[in-house]
Amino acid sequence: MEIITDQRFRRTIKYLRAFLIIGSIGLALALLLYIGILLYAKILGPPPLAVPQSTLYYADDGAIIGESHSGQKRYWVPLEEISPELVKATLAIEDRSFYDHHGFDYKRIAGAALADLKAMAKVQGASTISQQYARNLFLEHEKTWKRKLLEAFYTIRIEMSYTKNEILEGYLNTIYYGEGAYGIQAASQFYFGKNAADISLPEAAMLAGIPKGPSIYSPLASMEKAKERQELILNLMVQDRIITEAKAKAAASARLDIKGEHSNSVVKIAPYFQDAVKNALKSVLKLDERTIELGGLRVFTTLNTKQQELAEKNIARLIAKDSEIQAGLVAMNPKTGHVKAMVGGRNYEESPFNRATQAIRHPGSTMKPLLYYTAIEQGFTPSTTMRSELTTFRFNDQKEDYTPHNYNNLYADKEITMAQALALSDNVYAVKTHLFLGEEALVDTVKRFGITTKMKAVPSLALGTSGVRVIEMANAYSHFANGGKKVDPIFITRVENHQGEVIYEHKAKDEPALKPEAAFVTTHLMTGMFDRRLNGYTAVTGNSMVNKISRIYAGKSGSTNTDNWMVGFTPQLVTAVWTGYDQGKPIEMVAEKGYAKNIWIHFMEDALKGEPVQSFKAPKGTVSVYINPENGKLATEDCPVQRLTYYVAGTEPTEYCTEHIMDEKHDHKKSKKKKKIKMPWYKKLFDW
User: Fold this and answer.
1) CA-to-CA distance for 399 and 391, rounded, in angstroms?
2) DSSP letter assigned to residue 562
3) What is the CATH number of the domain that holds 179?
4) Within a domain: residue 235?
5) Residues 387, 440: one domain?
6) pLDDT over 80 at 51, yes or no
7) Are residues 603 and 627 in the same domain?
8) Closest CA to 177 of 148, 141, 219, 142
9) Is 94 among the residues known to form the active site?
10) Residues 541 and 652 in one domain
11) Residue of 67, 83, 85, 94 with catalytic role
12) How many domains does the chain have?
């Protein structure tokens, strides 16, 4: 009997020893495997935490004007910009020991396993926030062992590479809250119309309960179940001594105002402008399409929503609804180059082709101010005279004869000044000036004004026969409005990535492009189109707008058989308007020929309403004198019409007008017979 007992004892010891050896080997292998996994995770480095996020576009006042996304609303916010109550409520329901474990809550895993064993079904989850974050970032939500193992591996990598706050921030910004809202910012805006930073305790407890099952616990799906889960979370917060019972009861009974709409689901504002912004992101920042659409960027643009609305409204109101005429408009701040409004067509849904930035059309007489600036640089003055008459130009270098025509074939048939030639848009004067300077002179000048489309050095270039874009003309005239400084169209002031880091910021450059005195003299010449004192063989080209203006404008209209333009400015705002048919069909109806001017003046008056009236300031190197507009000579008291005109210092006229001396002598005799009327002092003061 003792022998049998001894044998059994020895056999037990043998099995125990074998078990210990095998166990030790297994434990060592498991330890080696674990160390190997850790080393492998370390070698791989931190996993990328980037997820698709909505890119937001902002106007100049910070209002959101649009967004790009793939149907998923995602907006990243830093942890410090998330309500503390929201963070605490999430930790209470999802992972109470988040800051104590290293990715896995073994006590919770054991408890969940026991609960599942008792119920013989999957009844309790044990995933930590780190595990859920790993699953959301890298894995599908399939329930397989492979997915579980990969989830554990990604959890280890995340915990090794990032701080707890970084993990929590990432989790809160990626978890799904239902209704297309990914992340706490999108959810806060959708359910309560608030930013995540402004969420209250009752709202936080309800939001924290949604990710468990958005189709079940969303207040829009079932307010009853949402309230039950809210109370559960509040009770857990009481147990963890985060809040008092009194606060929990008050929060549970608080009335919640559920919005149920995405705050950024606005109709796309200024769609042509936003397309131009995206093109700028590609060309200036060299960003790819995916980054632009899903990179979670915050793009701060130059758009003025009020001016944009006015531009669209005036185009829609002033062009007949049954007309096939198209329109392009660009409004810019001439000092900064910031594009404030852009219309690329009458209906973006029907045609996204941007006529403001893509279409190349003949600018007509809007090219003349650039020509006359060139002439003033080379010694011409507003008083320089040439004969306005039907003229055929013949050339010795095998060029064909060229005969430019004035509008309606009207000519002065006498000498006229540059000031009057520009105000009346005399084509013969312009071609003569162009040929006198040399055809290449204007080509070179155009480049200084920021126009990049190629120009043909031909006699007709003076009349705008080489195509340009609307935005180029707005930019060119900005050089006049800002006193001759270099300027380029700017759509974007700043770009931030999804973490709020500034990746681009526009920095203005102070570079001269034109001679300030010549630019100002040309600007003053352009005010002439609105001054009836320059009427001659025909009315000034801005005659139809004179009664509608409330401030000093400078500008130039232009027309060809197929294009109508109006480009003009104040010191605060430059606007270029083009109207015409896409197919280049001739514009024949009188009403359609007036669309460009009509849109321009109504937009400018509306956009500048309430703004201070600013005049153009004469720089050093200029002088002003009163002249007789008919001949450009110094005006005397005898001249019936006098106009203050600016010149580059040293080029002003010195000869006085003598044409009205005889008329004055005759009138002087008559005036002696008139009885002198005594004027009261206050009337004298008023006149003074």
Assistant:
1) 16
2) S
3) 1.10.3810.10
4) yes
5) yes
6) no
7) no
8) 219
9) yes
10) no
11) 94
12) 4
